[in-house]
Structure of FAD:protein FMN transferase:
Amino acid sequence: MMPISPLPALRGLLFVLLLALTGCQPTPPAQTRIQGKTMGTYYVVTLSDPFPGGEPALKEEVERLLARMNKEISTYDPASLISRFNQGPANAPMAIPTAMARIVQQGIDAGHLTGGKLDVTVGPLVNLWGFGPDKRPVKRPDAQAINDARQRVGIDKLTLLSQGDHFLLGKSIPDLYLDLSTLGEGAASDEIAALLEGKGVNNYLIEVAGAVRSKGNNSKGKPWKVAIVEPSDQPGAFSDVVSPNGMALSTAGSYRNYYELDGKRYSHIIDPATGQPITHKLVSASVITPTALEADALDTALMVMGPEQAMAFAKAHQLAVYLIVKSGDGFKAQYTPQFALYLAREKS
Ligand code: FAD
């Protein structure tokens, strides 16, 4: 077995590259920028409006928000709310905060919309294949182990009920394992955006791993630009440049987070229908929607679908989608007309 993915902390930044970081433009002094580690990855927040208290206050507030989210939805923290839910009994609904309920509801909705391609109960399979908090497998899981794990998967075994001012999260089998890892970064981008807007900041670019939220302009008065990184070995190579114009952009990919076992490559994205990591030629999917949470749910589902089904789904739902597909020794990009509206190739 040869783990060859980069550190989890680097993954997100490798999917999308904020152009402000590429050295293309010198950093203007009016810009406020903080970065740090969260959720096993990185976050970067750049503002061209002042933040009350400056960078130290911004960093403190953002990190307090992220710490609270980790305490709610991190399966890597055995004491988090989600871990307590996963360890708890069946048919004993647990009260959860509104912010966490929003993420679970998005997971359930996207699960229905995508015919189960996104499944927030896929955790037993993620862990079996060695991509969760558990260790990597020393050998490929056998059919029996995959089948056993699949018995524990399915959003029909999960319930979310609104009760007055709170929400109740329940499960019908004791060993259901809720895994919101695929949605956490998008949710965090949205929550940071809400924090900023609550402080009167209307010009910002936020990235938490591959999930970006943007609004307004950069400190030069121009729209923010984000690069979609090409999945090649060339450092800094990017496939296209996007100006999200107040929207959210999220990218999922199979080419950074994987390992090799007995000469075969295993990606961290699992097809719930087979219980196995995806094997097709779609290497990255980017989606633009109003919220990063929605985009983060859809990009993973598209990755499960594979190139043809993902493009058909995007067209049927009129989504702004950009796919990178392995083609021979290189890569081919294809995108919907809705995504073309955000491409910023020729613009300076
Ligand atoms: P995405 O494509 O956004 O999501 C892929 C992930 O979703 C997979 O890794 C798997 O977990 C899950 N998944 C796979 N297939 C499906 C499917 N069909 N449907 C639904 N979900 C699927 N990682 C660490 O290494 N250490 C940490 O301490 C850590 N803490 C975290 C705390 C929080 C609150 C969250 C949300 C995540 C944390 N992670 C941690 C996980 C990590 O940051 C990423 O979420 C994970 O590596 C995948 O994110 P991605 O953007 O690379 O891929």
